[in-house]
Design goal:
Blueprint (H helix, E strand, L loop, with lengths): L4 E5 L2 H13 L5 E5 L5 E3 L2 E3 L1 H10 L17 H8 L10 H15 L4 H11 L5 E4 L6 E6 L2 E4 H7 L6 E7 L8 H7 L6 E4 L4 H9 L4 H7 L4 E4 L2 E2 L2 E2 L4 H7 L6 H8 L5 E4 L7 H6 L3 E4 L7 H16 L1
Parallel strand pairs: 1-2, 1-9, 2-5, 9-10, 10-13, 13-14
Antiparallel strand pairs: 3-4, 6-7, 6-8, 11-12
Helix pairs in contact: 1-2, 1-13, 4-5
Length: 313
């Protein structure tokens, strides 16, 4: 079955919409292009935080209390590790650890990250193609007042406290885009491209930085629809509002529209931000106003249906 929807996603916020799309689309109709700019090696293990967040969201394994990781998690490994004096700044739950160990094992056997991810898709009965943006390593780097930090050091070790000044994507220029993503973007059955409500700087821009992705988006004649990750001047999760302020930008859906520029055809904004619609449309993007906060699976489905309905208008 050919792909009709391609969704670009980072972790928690994007994973919720990816989950919603997967629940309203027929199996095989969705491809989720996942950010791997925050993948890193930790104690010899290959960690793919955003890919795993998507897995957990679409299989109802996500930990709703912490907002990350796996539900029902235990921490015996971390307790033992700390007892030995090991690094404990990055939490590895006992169940979560199984994915990291197996991913690393398969990669060392010569499988690509795409192949490894498909293995997990099959094991977890994921009804769509979850495609890493590239099989080549790309690292999101943040210039801060404490020096240049890779994503996980900034996000987890430093708790996003350093002042962000600039973002770059190390080795992106040398990376090759995942061929599954490029095929889906040029497919005859493609109807919609969705930029999920993920942090643009940390989650979506790393995907767009891989050569061929932006060109493929611009070459297609289907609508590119983004869902704003800002509601009422605040990010629902993570440091996006703080980052935008540090970059001298107003945390708003209007700023999100300006960031994506002419790549964007439609921006979905929350009902509470309806007053921004006219200014966004003046930039050349259409606006769809809808409830965008996803607290439940029903909320995820509802927002997914709003996004898909835009294509049918």
């Amino acid at each position: 079955m050919s792909v009709s929807v391609v969704a670009f996603s980072g972790g928690v916020g994007g994973a919720k919409l990816a989950s919603g799309l997967s629940r309203v689309l027929e199996p095989g109709k969705l491809l989720v292009a996942a950010n791997t700019g925050d993948d890193f090696s930790h104690m010899g293990l290959h960690i793919s935080p955003d890919i795993d967040s998507i897995f957990y969201a679409v299989t109802d394994l996500n930990n709703t209390e912490t907002g990350w990781g796996r539900t029902g998690e235990t921490w015996n490994f971390m307790a033992a590790l700390k007892g030995f004096g090991g690094e404990d700044w990055f939490n590895l739950g006992d169940s979560d650890l199984a994915m990291h160990v197996l991913r690393t094992h398969w990669l060392q056997q010569g499988q690509s990250l795409s192949e490894v991810t498909q293995n997990f898709c099959q094991a977890l009965n994921v009804p769509f193609n979850l495609a890493p943006m590239s099989n080549d390593p790309v690292t999101t780097m943040i210039d801060t007042d404490k020096g240049t930090l890779p994503m996980q050091d900034y996000f987890v070790r430093e708790h996003c406290e350093p002042v962000a000044k600039k973002f770059s994507y190390k080795d992106a220029n040398e990376a090759s885009a995942n061929s599954d993503i490029l095929s889906a973007l040029s497919g005859d059955d493609l109807q919609t491209i969705v930029l999920c409500p993920s942090n643009p700087y940390l989650s979506i821009d790393p995907i767009l930085a891989v050569p061929g992705i932006v060109e493929a988006l611009k070459a297609t004649d289907v609508p590119v629809i983004a869902v704003s990750p800002i509601v009422g001047g605040l990010a629902l999760k993570g440091p996006l509002g703080k980052i935008m302020g540090e970059l001298g930008l107003e945390p708003s859906s209007l700023s999100i529209a300006k960031h994506y520029g002419d790549l964007l055809d439609v921006l979905v904004i929350d009902e509470g931000d309806a007053h921004e619609a006219e200014a966004i449309e003046a930039l050349g993007s259409q606006v769809c106003i809808a409830p965008t906060i996803m607290k439940t699976i029903d909320d995820q489905r509802a927002l997914a249906n709003v996004v898909l309905a835009i294509t049918k208008k």
